[in-house]
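call fold(seq) -> tokens
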Amino acid sequence: MKRHVSGGYLYDASDADVADVIDSNLAKKRIRKEDLNPLQVLTTRREALSLYRDILRVTRAFVYPDNDGRLWRDVLRESARQEYEAARFEQDPEIINRLIVVGRDAVSQVTDKVRLN
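ret:
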């Protein structure tokens, strides 16, 4: 499809190509802490802390050692702590919510498997 652009130039591209060019040249909006709703920040913080406490509760069941002699409980808790520290300064609410959902799913899968055994 031919499109007229200012200056009389013709651009031959599909709508998808034009949308890709526009998206690639637009600056991504950075979300500042001041722009976030305080209740939303508290809610995600509360959910993240609740998930962390659930992880600590679920890992109590893993009292057997791994190949190196460390208790699986300690290995899993250390791994969870590292994940939390890696995402500590994340400010994008979508990413935070995705991390919480993935964490909840992992905890529920582990809980289901522990209950079956």
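The helical segments are 15-25, 38-58, 72-86, 93-116.
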